[in-house]
Automatic annotation (TrEMBL):
Homology family: Belongs to the class-I pyridoxal-phosphate-dependent aminotransferase family.
Protein EC: 2.6.1.-
PANTHER family: AMINOTRANSFERASE (PTHR46383:SF4), ASPARTATE AMINOTRANSFERASE (PTHR46383)
Keywords in alphabetical order: Aminotransferase, Pyridoxal phosphate, Transferase
Descriptive protein name: Aminotransferase
Cofactor: pyridoxal 5'-phosphate
PROSITE patterns: AA_TRANSFER_CLASS_1
Length: 395
């Protein structure tokens, strides 16, 4: 086994040294070593990919669809993205010049940030937020302005954004919104998005709208900020959550032509193009499977109601999610704000794994996130164990 030459040990990208590994993955790996634990740590759908979508991937392989696709994705896939956005959200993006198919929404976020950011730029990120965002901004040479939204129901209000921008000065380049949100599941109302859009336009900013959970909403219709300020919106979405296709790694970016031209260069340098079988599956899902998420949505809503009632019975407050599949729960008062210690005790003693809220930024401190993308039986046992653990704290 080769050992790196000693004089090369520090010869790495210094920005990479400024960030740690994914907090979610680190917790998941740590708790995986606990015997008998039920892990509700990862946002991994327990559903199967729809059969017609799987068959499209198989057909791509058997027909030797094995050569490079266009860098922005196959025409059929980009047409499918156009079809989905037009049909489901009444957004109109040109498949030729305004859409890029990416290797998951993760690559979409990374390519977007690397396209628009320069050293010294700042990005406003409401917290709690998906932890991926923070290191990617750092690696791009920019800075994050984390805005704690816990006092406002985990929603960034226009007034709060205006205040933050007044204090930050002219170095802010973009606002990054994720809704329904990970880790809270909270959706942004249309009126709030319209107010945010005005502030964003007044300050001449981009808005990066990560809408990966847009198909998983409960009792509310998803409203994209791209309907209000399309000329400033970089829209990110994908198939991982809506069609349980996490392993297929298919996402996309939609935005103004001028931005897409530059983002295409960054995307091409990073990955060349996505995998052909995955693109064929995604195209089938978007062109012919717009009703596929309905069954998943109904199952997740039922699970949300179940865990919310269970946490209420334990005396624990939970943000009411109107989308996604996460329960963001206030930890017991006995632990104060120490969500890391609570998560570790719950894993070791209660045999239930969740992610400490502080992993999602300052706005998540004192909370713990559980994914309810698990079977009813698994969730029932997890809530039983957690109730016993919470009772033991009170004793």
């Amino acid at each position: 086994m080769p050992k790196l030459a000693s004089e090369l040990s520090q010869q790495v990208n210094q920005r990479l040294n400024q960030v740690g590994p994914s907090g979610i993955r680190a917790v998941d790996q740590k708790f995986s070593k606990v015997p008998g634990i039920i892990k509700l740590t990862l946002g991994e759908p327990d559903m199967n990919v729809p059969e017609h979508v799987k068959q499209a991937a198989i057909k791509s392989i058997t027909e030797n669809d094995s050569h490079y696709s266009p860098q922005k994705g196959t025409p059929y896939l980009r047409q499918g993205i156009h079809h989905y956005l037009k049909t489901s959200q009444n957004l109109d993006y040109d498949p030729e010049t305004e859409i890029i198919a990416t290797v998951g929404a993760t690559e979409a976020v990374c390519a977007t940030l690397l396209t628009i950011l320069n050293p010294g730029d700042k990005v406003v990120i409401p917290t709690p937020a998906f932890p991926l965002y923070f290191p990617l901004v750092t690696i791009a040479g920019a800075e994050t302005i984390q805005v704690d939204t816990s006092a406002d129901g985990f929603v960034l209000t226009p007034e709060h954004l205006e205040q933050v921008l007044a204090e930050a000065g002219d170095s802010v380049k973009a606002v990054l919104l994720n809704y329904p949100g990970n880790p809270t599941g909270v959706e942004y109302p249309q009126s709030t998005l319209e107010g945010l859009a005005k502030v964003i336009a007044d300050h001449h900013l981009y808005v990066i709208a990560d809408e990966i959970y847009s198909e998983l909403t409960f009792g509310v219709d998803h409203f994209s900020i791209a309907k209000v300020i399309p000329e400033r919106t970089i829209l990110i979405n994908g198939l991982s959550k809506s069609h349980a296709m996490t392993g297929y790694r298919m996402g996309y970016i939609a935005g103004p032509t001028e931005f897409i031209a530059n983002a295409t260069k960054m995307h091409a340098f990073m990955v060349t193009s996505p995998s052909n079988p995955a693109q064929a599956a995604a195209a089938e899902a978007l062109n012919n499977g717009l009703d596929d998420p309905i069954v998943m949505r109904e199952a997740y809503q039922k699970r949300r109601d179940f865990v919310q009632a269970a946490f209420a019975k334990m005396g624990l407050d939970m943000a009411t999610p109107s989308g996604a599949f996460y329960a963001f729960v206030k930890i017991p008062a006995a632990y104060g704000q120490d969500d890391v210690r609570f998560a570790e005790d719950l894993a070791e003693k209660g045999k239930v794994g969740g992610v400490p809220g502080s992993a999602f930024g300052a706005g998540g401190e004192g909370y713990i996130r559980f994914s309810y993308a698990a079977s009813d039986a698994v969730l029932a046992e997890a809530m039983k164990r957690m109730a016993a653990f919470v009772d033991s704290i009170k004793a």
